[in-house]
Amino acid sequence: KAKLSGKEIKMPDIEKLPQKDYQCMDFQKMIDAKHGWVGLMAWRGCPFSCTFCASTVLFGRKVRYRPIMQIVDEIEYLQSTWGDRHFWFSDDTFTINRAHTTALFQELNRRRLKISWSCLTTIHAVNAGFLAMMQEAGCKYISYGIETGHQDFLDRYVGKRISPQEMIRTSALTHAEGIPHYGFFIFGFPGETWGSIQDTYDLIVRCKMNGGGMNILIPLPGTTLWNTLFQEQRKFSLEEIEWDRLFARLPQTGYESFTARLAARWCELGASELIEACRKGQDLFTDSPTRSA
């Protein structure tokens, strides 16, 4: 269900939604802008309860699965129309249901569709055997939503029940299968200090991740953190939010992004320190231009 102007609207069953009409847009231009990548969703929703994530606000905690045949039909159409492309599965947790994901791989194999693809998932939604299956199915890299290496923040704000030790083990398994992998991290949780940031740095180094993204916390409307920071603690007002600047992640040198200035209100770090923390973290990945220079 969705809400519009305060009224609840029942969304149609996902299997009843029609295929996207790629002819109604300049899709080639979109492909070129993404360097040949094509985005897909195999299912919608996420069962976890991360306090900063809007997925449960949009979809609830129920995962809705597209029919396997419908997904593979779309891939086959895209491949036959626009040639071999790299497919990015933008699902919140692509491997959350291994049986369903396995069925997708099997159908691709049955139709002899060889594709290059990547996905986003979480560390406890894979294991050694499944990683081997992903590699055989054409997986070129995995992005793990890790968020932080600080255990207190993992327990309080990240609803995945994971630990740094589990991340290190999963990273080692991913390396063993020869799959490059990336991590998504967030700085600016309430109470963030240089000490908690160092925990994240230590994790990145120990995992030897190929790359990743450093983000500053954004309080999204409807999330638990939004309710805490806005409604309960009154850390900011609606009138002062600069929505068009809210998603600036790594601003240019000397420019303090609105997000960083906002997060500084509930951290023990200033806006410029949060930006510097992101820059330093980005340099720790093994494929970072700075590290290879």
What does it look like?
By secondary structure, this protein is of the alpha/beta class. It is built from twelve helices and ten strands. The radius of gyration is 20 Å and the shape is globular. A six-stranded parallel beta sheet has the order 3-6-7-8-9-10.
Q: What's the short version?
A:
With 293 residues, the protein is α/β, with parallel strands linked by helices. It is 39% helix and 16% strand.
Question: What's the arrangement of secondary structure elements?
Answer:
Elements: E1 2-4, E2 7-9, H1 27-33, E3 37-40, E4 43-44, H2 55-59, E5 64-65, H3 68-82, E6 86-89, H4 98-110, E7 116-121, H5 128-136, E8 139-147, H6 151-157, H7 164-176, E9 181-187, H8 194-207, E10 211-216, H9 224-232, H10 258-263, H11 271-282, H12 289-292
Parallel strand pairs: 3-6, 6-7, 7-8, 8-9, 9-10
Antiparallel strand pairs: 1-2, 4-5
List keywords for this structure.
293 residues; 12 helices; alpha/beta; single chain; six-stranded parallel β-sheet
Query: What is the share of helical residues?
Result: 25-40%
Say how many strands there are.
10
Q: How much of the polypeptide forms β-strand, as a percent range?
A: 15-25%
- Please identify the structural class as seen in this structure: alpha/beta
Main β-sheet, in a few words?
6 strands, parallel
Helix-strand topology string: EEHEEHEHEHEHEHHEHEHHHH
